[in-house]
Amino acid sequence: MTLEVRRQTACTEELLEAFARLLPQLSPRLGALAPEAAERIVASPATALFAARSEEGIVGLLTLAWYDAPSGRKAWIEDVVVDRSARGCGAGHRLVAEALRHAARIGAGRVELTSAPHREAARALYRKMGFKEAETTLFVLETDKK
């Protein structure tokens, strides 16, 4: 399978279709992304959305977000998903590698991500690429509860 990874610079129908197909594979609670939400991600000055493409179209997505803090610029890898039909072909590796290159270009001294324990293949990929489990606890407070 021939793969190409590029940063998405426009919200296209192809991208919206990919979100609709791939996000439920990331989490069953996720559905299609509203065009306005996709546009905000693509247009944001603090995010980069990367797409892995094969001959069939977009087969993987990854979002890199960054912020500045007194301790330096940090970046987060979010929502990495590769289509079931393309897993094992290197798309995840290529997406993460491109995100790491971009993080270095923008001066992020640290790149972080989270991965659920049941996502064994993803966790193995992150370790292979040099990520280490942090000795910390992530605290979460959901502010969008109704």
Please outline the helices and strands.
Blueprint: E1 4-7, H1 13-26, H2 35-43, E2 47-54, E3 57-69, E4 72-82, H3 91-105, E5 110-112, H4 120-128
Parallel strand pairs: 4-5
Antiparallel strand pairs: 1-2, 2-3, 3-4
In short:
With 146 residues, the chain is of the alpha+beta class. The chain is built from four helices and five strands, in the order E-H-H-E-E-E-H-E-H.
Strand content: 25-35%
| CATH top level label | Alpha Beta
Shape descriptor reads globular
Number of helices: 4
CATH topology: Aminopeptidase
Largest sheet: 5 strands, mixed
Strand order, largest beta sheet: 1-2-3-4-5
- Cα(first) to Cα(last) distance is 45 Å
Low-confidence segments, ≥5 residues, pLDDT <50? none
Number of domains: 1
Output mean pLDDT: 94
Rg for CA atoms: 15 Å
Number of strands: 5
Compressed to H and E, one letter per element, the order equals EHHEEEHEH
Helix proportion range: 25-40%
- CATH architecture type: 3-Layer(aba) Sandwich
- CATH H level, superfamily name: Gcn5-related N-acetyltransferase (GNAT)
Keywords for this entry:
single chain, 146 residues, alpha+beta, Aminopeptidase, 5-stranded mixed beta sheet, 4 helices, 32% helix, globular
Task: Please tell me about this protein's structure.
It is a single chain. α3 links the parallel β4 and β5. The N and C termini lie far apart (45 Å). The model has no long low-confidence stretch (mean pLDDT 94). A five-stranded mixed β-sheet has the order 1-2-3-4-5, with helices on both faces. The longest helix has 15 residues. It has a single domain, classed as Aminopeptidase (3-Layer(aba) Sandwich), CATH 3.40.630. The radius of gyration is 15 Å and the shape is globular. Helices cover 32% and strands 27% of the residues. It is an alpha+beta fold.
